[in-house]
TrEMBL record:
Residues 156-196 are annotated as: Disordered. This is Charged multivesicular body protein 6a. InterPro entries: Snf7_fam. Residues 179-196 have a biased composition (Basic and acidic residues). Residues 17-44 form a coiled coil. It is found in: Endosome membrane. Signal peptide: none annotated. Pfam families: Snf7. GO terms for biological process: late endosome to vacuole transport via multivesicular body sorting pathway; protein transport; vesicle budding from membrane. Keywords: Coiled coil, Endosome, Membrane, Protein transport, Transport.
Amino acid sequence: MGNVFGRRSQPTRVTEQDRAVLQMKQQRDKLKQYQKRITLQLEKERLLAKQWLQDGKKEKALLLLKKKRYQDQLLDKTDSQISNLERMVQDIEFMQIEMEVIEGLKIMCIEDVERILDETQESIEYQRQIDEMLAGALTQEDQEAVLAELDAITQGEDVELPEVPTEPIPEVPEAAKAGTERREAKDTAHRETLTA
């Protein structure tokens, strides 16, 4: 009879960590309210102490300032408690995020490992096919040449390269440079008129 409309109660998604975080945030808010109330009270007491000094009640003003000093110390303690609570809330929230990430990584890791194994197997098969194709396409002489080149590279021997000329490159006369520049300018102007 508890379900009047036939709805089943769904389990709450609020965890113990969520409740702890909520309680800490509520405690933090209460401490901040307390801090504001004390700050206002301290300001009033400072003004009252100033008034008593003007009235010549030095001892009362001194007692009030001592009380103010004590409450300042309480405010400092309250500040440290608030920062501790905020740090604890952040730590708990960060740990919850870490747990979600770790759970996600566990699932992803199995899938990634399977994918990597599949890709590796495909790569091995592809390499084997390439080796078979190359083995059938190269003649015995080609294979010997490839092996000789490989030996030369691994032994540090230089592969024969063509000779590089040692003669200096001749200078281009000024008249030839000017003619080349004019031709390039004409070609550029001609291309621009064609594109326009």
